[in-house]
Amino acid sequence: MNSLWQDLRYGVRALLKRPGFAAVAVITIGLGIGASTAIFSVVNGLLIEPLPLHEPDRLVIPNVIAPTGYEISLSIPNFRDWRERNRSFESFGGNLSWNMTLTGLDRAEIVVTRFVLGDFFETLGVPPLMGRVIASDETWAGAAPVAVVTYGFWERRLGSDPAVLGRTITLDGQMFEIIGVMPPEFQFPSAESEVYLPMGLFSRGLCWDNRTCSAGTWAVGRLKDGVSIEMAQADLDRVTRELSEEEGEPVAVARFQSLSDAFVGDVRTPILILMGAVGFVLLIACANVANLLLSRGESRRRELAVRAALGAGRGRVVRQLLTESVALGLCGGVLGVGLAYLGIRVLIPAASDSIPAAAAERIGLDPTVLAFTFIVAVGAGLLFGVAPALRASAQGLASELGEGGRGGTAGRARQRLRSGLVVAEVALSLVLLIGAGLMIQSLRKLQHVDKGFVAENIFTARVSLPRIRYDGKQPAWRFFDDFLGRVQRLPGVRTASLSQSVPLQGGGWEQSIVPEGTPREPENLRSVLYYVVTPDHFATFGIPLLQGRLFHDADRDGTAAVCIIDETMAENFWPGEDPIGKRVNFEEDPGSTPENPVPLWRTVVGVVRNVRHYELESPARITVYVPMAQSAGMWTTSMYVAAKTQGDPLLLSESVRRELAALDPDVPLYRIGTMEGYVRQAMSNSRLVGGLLSTFSVLALVLSAVGIFGVISFSVVQRLREIGIRMALGAHRGDVLRMVTGQSLLVSLAGVVLGLVAAFALTRLLSSMLYEVDPVDPLTYAVLAVFLVAISTLAAYLPARRATRVDPAIVLREE
Prior knowledge:
Number of strands: 22
Distance between the termini: 45 Å
Largest sheet: 6 strands, mixed, barrel
Number of helices: 24
Shape: elongated
Strand content: 15-25%
Number of domains: 4
């Protein structure tokens, strides 16, 4: 231990004698460690740190797939049968998200509530901070009006009242008694959910007895000890087969995934790709520092020879040099922590559309991340230090005393090692450049994809009416009709409309329909998205009319039921025919309810452009639009308002809020945004990965260029005698320039070839994130390979020019 401490002190003194060298090395490795630490903090928060639930590895959720092949929510009968007939789950709970209006406090606001069913709280396994949770037998029809609130809601809206148990809150005009407060770490399924209520209080519209009704319910199950996801999947497959036989038709099936995977969502692949990218940057930084140490080792050979002559064995010298390298790595680690802190502060807001809010709160420099940084710093120090240490301590050091430490050209082995490191840097840089290039191409294609609508200057917001006060279709529609008229009259508004949802936000109802002339049998049903809209919806969003007409004010109750379809539906249902005037059978008679839908015939009056209602990358789904004033039994108390404006759409928000308050001060305006914002959000993953890959590739390119510059500069210094002799024998400056740059070109080409092979293998990992871009696009590969060779040649040009200015007489006289 004493000798190790002595090595450390000696190493620090040696580094302080060369502060310029130490600073360059620390900054170089600090950049690599900082990038690695920042991205690892995201990996840790999303993929490693366990969810704040009891034994979260045993929690799974079933993704429900309808017989039509589309993913849907879970019907109550299916939930009940899955819960009662399975043999794999210790407990099984459900929940439904609903926006409710909170009144009775200082101001009205929308609160995201969760109606829970079955063993919801028991499954999650988190005890309340105060009071109790809603028991399983309290969640069914006839439930008492009780509520469990989150810690955040208790703090924010209830003033952290210690006597909160027994207090009441008013949601949608109904009073609920607070029976429990959850601990701060409980944020399920997201931080947005603040109040939990019994599902039985939401019995209206939940299709308690209709197996085919997609009720908006999602389930979570806790596996029994020793049961795997695969075993649970097989068990539920058995249950669905039994149900299909009993019903005489196919029923929805479950596809299980772990809760942690569902929690992370689509972010897992991008984050792992970015972790690999920063690993490349770190390796490039290590190669750069290794080359610096090799160069420094040449200047220290006499010093090390003296130590060897005084009795220091090779192992002692290697340990000394590795201690210095680890010291550099640790200093780089300290710098890296600072850079990572700044990077995280920039990254989290930039990735807010990609990373769930609850997960973002877990991202930071916690002990796990700092331990990772320490390990990486020590590992990097050993990685970039071992080759220079072995090379500098090689046999033959004693001869340095006799030769005075001078020589004409660098040893071939040492030069091969330096060149090999540069080859690795160039190869890794090219992989990053190609990855960034592919992502940028994909992002550009997404930006120009045919969305089916025009996003510019569209204000959007959502309005949800208290169900008790606006019970039934007519009160709700009268309110929405008055509200829309007020918005349309606001200054700066060109057109305005109401719709069940807006493009890129999903939200449509799943409807099973058949065209006229086809029996309404299960095997003939076709699944479509069903949207309730007002007549100006298409003008507001710039959705082109392709055939027929749009809705008008005459399309009201009591007139012929009509609908507008998209071009995909026209092509699929009536290929080669004119769809105008065709009739389609829907599950929505004016007397129908979601529990007991009655079919209704609608006539197609128009065909519009396909609209991407979900992801930009996914093809548009078949969509049917129905006029709000003629929506029969399918009505809702929650609608989006959209307005096409002459200027900045967000400037309209206060005016819209005032008009809404004039109609009902207890109905808040929420989810205020713009369609341009939703488009940006839809591209957030591609933008995040593309931006970070571009940043890392530029950093890698700079480090590689610096590495090439350093190697060629050192080579020129070592070959001054050779160059002097060549010039004394008649070599021209151009000959010397070509000789030196040719050396760089060979190294660069070797790195490019290796990089192309690696990119061909690795960029396939990006396939799932690329939109209409081939992961082995030859043009991208060729352009970036040539670009990297050009940068490498430019980096070698400056030291090459220095070589052409050598005075042969001075060099030979010094020898």
